[in-house]
């Protein structure tokens, strides 16, 4: 039996290796062509650059199909050559010869689980970052071969850039013109460039032309930054006079190129973690931070209103330990915060004996978003038709004549500690829990409900992705046995016959897995998805037993 098992396993591995190599080359070339079409201008050199990342992904995906084809063909040839008949004549139980197929299925399943769930997602993330790291080449390719770059849908602003010629710039020329040269800093020279900005309604907003445009792409920072150096140009903006540009630098401008977050680029460990802690998932994290920031601004508005009511004084401090004492005749919620009328602000600095006073007919208290650090508040004093912004500076024992200003901004004011304590008690888990009450305005309450729906949808997608990934890996264990049995029954010794027979169990299981994934993501059929996934695989396993019992004589 050791000799027989070694013989069958050797044939299986040989056929499996050849099939895997063929399918990998086929799908890798297809994947490369797909990326060329997707990025519209990726050169052949770029394709060969990301092939080392694409090949392991394709190998992992095609291994189950290659193993199934190998099992069907090898056992079909054993049946067609009457080798199984010879084994029966020698008194050997034919079912024991399927041990080699089971060993191959275990190896393929373990390999697919390890790479597909823990290694390949990292490769897919690196492929998704391809556009960011090669933005200069993508721009150059599109301008060179298409002649233009167009961005924007019909329902939003549209931008079109054209160029007569694009070319790289040598390091010697850059140093001669005193431009920085460093790794990660790429330059592109555009000759006779035009820029067209069309609004949502199809009306012309801006048109600009330039004889030379030097674009610097700095990939050393995130997000990527682009600096544009324009020479000998003209700028035409609707409603304004045309301006001549002799030499001008625009930027650096951040060009965020975030790839859409996809669960397929996450490893299995992260998927299970996000099921327990959904607020750490990138798909929800930014929205939750935005909600908590808006909640902070709402709490500040309530805090400020309570302290300004009935002529009371609102006291705030800035980062330099200056105290701001604010009073107002009235206030009302504004677009970005609180709008005060007939406001008065006294700024007491530790270095001055008397405060500086500001008076304005209108003052906006605007809480600012704080991606990092402590949230800040701005006071924006604005001129009205009846009164300027007045600034009274201390002079001796009194105040001199006021300075008149059209507007004034007092910034770097820190959020009161009481507000931060109230918001700190609200955790992301509480926001996503419908049973936890949080005092919010109606608009913010609607956002919270939307976040809860997004969290529920994310949970269904996580369950669907986990079950699909594990089900696809486990399907090898049941389909290889089915393929080997079909090969024996139909004597699929020829490649085409073996391939056709292998397609039956492969696509049957694949259809079941796709259907189960769709059911899991559906809100009304969420519970059926996992049952269909694992129930379908168990049904295939039972079918294997019936086929082996009734179709393959021992």
Please give a quick description of this structure:
This protein has 554 residues and is α+β, with helices and mostly antiparallel strands.
Describe the model.
The protein is α+β, with helices and mostly antiparallel strands and 554 residues long. Among the domains are: 140-255, no CATH class; 297-427, no CATH class. It has helices spanning 2-39, 44-80, 83-89, 99-128, 130-133, 135-145, 171-176, 268-276, 282-308, 417-424, 428-432, 442-490, 495-521, 528-551; strands at 148-151, 158-162, 165-167, 185-198, 204-218, 224-237, 243-255, 314-317, 323-327, 330-333, 338-348, 356-368, 376-382, 389-392, 394-395, 398-399, 403-405, 407-414. Strands 8, 9, 10, 11, 12, 13, 14, 17 and 18 form a nine-stranded antiparallel β-sheet that branches. Strands 1, 2, 3, 4, 5, 6 and 7 form a seven-stranded antiparallel β-sheet that branches. Strands 15-16 form a two-stranded antiparallel sheet. 28% of the residues are buried.
């Amino acid at each position: 039996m050791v000799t027989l098992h070694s013989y069958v396993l050797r044939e299986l591995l040989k056929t499996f290796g050849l099939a895997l190599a063929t399918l990998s080359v086929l799908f890798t070339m297809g994947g490369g062509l797909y990326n060329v079409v997707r990025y519209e201008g990726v050169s052949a050199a770029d394709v060969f650059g990301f092939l080392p990342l694409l090949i392991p992904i394709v190998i992992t995906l095609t291994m189950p199909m290659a193993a199934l084809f190998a099992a069907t063909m090898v056992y079909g040839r054993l049946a067609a050559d009457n080798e199984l008949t010879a084994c029966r004549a020698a008194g050997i139980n034919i079912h024991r010869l399927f041990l080699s197929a089971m060993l191959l299925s275990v190896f393929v399943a373990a390999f697919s689980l390890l790479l597909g769930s823990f290694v390949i997602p990292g490769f897919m993330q690196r492929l998704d970052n391809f556009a960011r790291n090669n933005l200069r080449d993508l721009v150059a390719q599109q301008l060179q071969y298409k002649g233009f770059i167009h961005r924007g849908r019909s329902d939003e602003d549209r931008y079109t850039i054209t160029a007569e010629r694009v070319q790289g710039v040598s390091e010697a020329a850059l140093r001669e013109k005193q431009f920085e040269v460093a790794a990660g800093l790429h330059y592109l020279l555009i000759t006779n460039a035009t820029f067209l900005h069309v609004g949502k309604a199809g009306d012309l907003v801006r048109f600009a032309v330039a004889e030379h445009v030097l674009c610097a792409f700095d990939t050393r920072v995130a997000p990527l930054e682009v600096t544009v150096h324009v020479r000998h140009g003209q700028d035409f903006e609707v409603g304004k006079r045309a301006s001549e540009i002799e030499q001008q630098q625009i930027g650096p401008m951040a060009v965020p190129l975030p790839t859409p977050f996809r669960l397929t680029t996450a490893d299995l460990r992260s998927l299970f973690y996000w099921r327990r802690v959904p607020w750490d998932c990138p798909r929800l994290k930014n929205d939750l931070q935005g909600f908590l920031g808006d909640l902070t601004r709402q709490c500040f508005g309530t805090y400020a209103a309570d302290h300004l009511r009935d002529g009371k004084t609102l006291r705030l401090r800035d980062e330099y330990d200056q105290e701001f004492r604010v009073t107002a005749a009235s206030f009302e919620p504004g677009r970005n915060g609180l709008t005060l009328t007939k406001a008065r602000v006294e700024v007491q600095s530790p270095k001055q004996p008397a405060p500086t006073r500001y008076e304005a007919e209108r003052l906006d208290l605007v809480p600012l978003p704080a991606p990092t650090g402590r949230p800040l508040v701005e006071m924006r004093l604005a001129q009205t038709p009846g009164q300027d912004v007045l600034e009274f500076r201390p002079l001796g024992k009194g105040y001199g004549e006021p300075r008149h200003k059209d507007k004034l901004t007092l910034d770097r004011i820190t959020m009161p500690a009481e507000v931060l304590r109230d918001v700190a008690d609200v955790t992301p888990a509480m926001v996503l829990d419908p049973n936890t009450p949080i005092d919010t305005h109606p608009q913010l309450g609607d956002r919270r409900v939307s976040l809860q729906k997004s969290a529920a949808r994310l949970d269904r997608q996580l369950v669907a992705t986990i079950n699909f990934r594990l089900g696809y890996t486990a399907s090898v264990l049941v389909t290889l046995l089915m393929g080997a049995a079909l090969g024996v029954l139909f004597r699929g010794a020829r490649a085409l016959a073996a391939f056709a027979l292998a397609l039956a169990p492969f696509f049957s299981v694949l259809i079941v897995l796709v259907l189960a994934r769709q059911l899991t993501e559906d809100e009304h059929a969420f519970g059926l998805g996992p049952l269909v996934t694992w129930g379908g695989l168990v049904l295939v396993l039972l079918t294997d037993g019936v086929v082996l019992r009734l179709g393959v004589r021992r």
